[in-house]
What does this fold into?
Amino acid sequence: MVTLTRKSITETKIAKQSVVVLPLEQWAEIERDLEDVEMMRSSIFTKKIEAARKEKTVYSSKQVKEKLGL
It folds into this structure.
């Protein structure tokens, strides 16, 4: 998770709207975190996780590699 600290902030505006400028690496991390939050809020995703946890099928590493085409 990204932790941002306020150092010196200069207000920047584009088309009369305030904007935030940060390194792309930090934005990518924020975007990944947001995707994780969206996934966890999805009722379909939650149901799939519950179903997978109840499933007792065990796969060998060879079977997993075959299923994934590795």
Notes: The first helix runs from residue 24 to 41.
